């Protein structure tokens, strides 16, 4: 099974200081056809005005990842976690049995553009926890670079789910492949640019904000173009 989620078809919430595109149902945007993809529950593409943000609010039993595309995101939470997340960096907050946190644009003059990602955890009521990953662009140029995993492999963030998140940055003339297992689910999200994706004897041109979900597919998926992409390797 292959499903497409085109950027223009996503839900949108515009609140003055916030312009958000929702891949899956979230907040005021509800679509029963788009409630998530396996354990992947939320991908919100948020643009936040300078100095604005989300005041302190609570979550429980959710793995929350923030991937900054441009600008800087300031995080504080009641577990003691906090910091400023810059472009290409990944932040993880395991909400566990309950945590309060705030997210604000760290700049008073420039907007921040980031992806807010939620995954259901593989255990409940754990202690809240926080982590931050700051790879360099070269780490993912022309190859897959692991950002998050269940065991913290290769310096990735250790999350509480049997899932792996990888990033790749393709420059013109570069191509990469990912081997798919029919026992897993995969979600490919284009963050920037344009990528040509070849999978299951089909070819698609995908732009920033577009995504593919794959389940029960085996074989190689090939990508080329000039783009930054994220690949979620998820339990079935």
TrEMBL record:
Q: Binding of Fe cation: at which residues?
A: 57, 59, 101, 103
Can you give the residue ranges of the Pirin N-terminal domain? 11-119
Q: Which GO terms describe its molecular function?
A: metal ion binding
Q: What organism does this protein naturally occur in?
A: Marilutibacter penaei
Family of the protein in this entry: Belongs to the pirin family.
Q: Which InterPro entries match?
A: Pirin (IPR012093), Pirin_N_dom (IPR003829), Quercetinase_C (IPR041602), RmlC-like_jellyroll (IPR014710), RmlC_Cupin_sf (IPR011051)
Q: Which top-level group of life is the source organism from?
A: Bacteria
**Is the keyword Metal-binding assigned to this protein?**
yes
Q: Which cofactor does it need?
A: Fe cation
Q: Specify the Quercetin 2,3-dioxygenase C-terminal cupin domain's residue ranges.
A: 146-234
Pfam families to which the protein is assigned, alphabetical: Pirin, Pirin_C_2
UniProt keywords, alphabetically = Iron, Metal-binding
Coiled-coil portions: none
The name of this protein is Pirin family protein
List the lineage, top down.
Bacteria, Pseudomonadati, Pseudomonadota, Gammaproteobacteria, Lysobacterales
Q: Bound how, and how many: what does the cofactor note say?
A: Binds 1 Fe cation per subunit.
């Amino acid at each position: 099974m292959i499903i497409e989620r085109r950027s223009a078809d996503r839900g949108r919430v515009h609140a003055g200081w916030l312009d958000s595109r929702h891949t899956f149902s979230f907040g005021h945007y509800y679509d029963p056809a788009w409630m998530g993809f396996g354990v992947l529950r939320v991908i919100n593409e948020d643009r936040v005005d300078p100095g604005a943000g989300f005041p302190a609010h609570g979550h429980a039993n959710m793995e929350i990842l923030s991937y900054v595309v441009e600008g800087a995101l300031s995080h504080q939470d009641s577990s003691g976690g906090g910091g400023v997340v810059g472009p290409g960096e990944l932040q993880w907050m395991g909400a566990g049995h309950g945590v309060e946190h705030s997210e604000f644009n760290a700049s008073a003059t420039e907007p921040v553009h980031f992806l807010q990602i939620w995954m259901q955890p593989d255990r409940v009521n754990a202690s809240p926890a926080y982590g931050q990953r700051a790879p360099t662009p070269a780490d993912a140029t022309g190859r897959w670079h692991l950002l998050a995993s269940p065991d913290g492999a290769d310096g990735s963030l250790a999350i509480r789910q049997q899932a792996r998140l990888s990033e790749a940055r393709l420059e013109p003339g570069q191509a990469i492949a990912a081997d798919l297992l029919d026992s897993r689910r995969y979600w490919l999200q284009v963050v920037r640019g344009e990528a040509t994706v070849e999978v299951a004897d089909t070819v698609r041109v995908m732009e920033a904000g577009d995504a593919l979900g794959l389940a029960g597919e085996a074989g190689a998926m090939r990508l080329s173009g000039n783009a930054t992409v994220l690949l979620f390797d998820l339990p079935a």
